[in-house]
Write a structure and sequence with these properties.
The protein has 3 helices and 5 strands; from the N terminus they run E-H-E-H-H-E-E-E. The termini are far apart.
């Protein structure tokens, strides 16, 4: 009898405009890929859609794209473009 592995649950941390759009600094979402977690975050906070399209992402401190697979307990960071000087 095969068992289906549990879907990983990760902490998603939002920075700058992403934090404003989400209305929170961090929250937990489940998903097997970064794309799945981002889709869940946008479903929960539709205002994030535009910000996520322009953002870069880190998983446990490493740059990642939407196809990256996740491990339970990882931290995803949503980094929108920053303005500054």
């Amino acid at each position: 009898m095969s068992t289906v592995p549990a879907t990983p649950t990760v902490t998603v941390r939002y920075w700058a405009a992403a934090r404003e759009a989400a209305g929170t600094e961090a929250e937990r979402h489940a998903g097997r890929t970064l794309g799945g977690v981002l889709d869940a975050a946008v479903d929960a906070h539709p205002e994030l859609a535009t910000v996520v399209k322009a953002s870069t992402f880190l998983i446990d401190g490493r740059s990642a794209d939407r196809s990256a697979t996740l491990e339970d307990g990882s931290t995803v960071e949503v980094l929108p473009p920053f303005a500054g000087g």
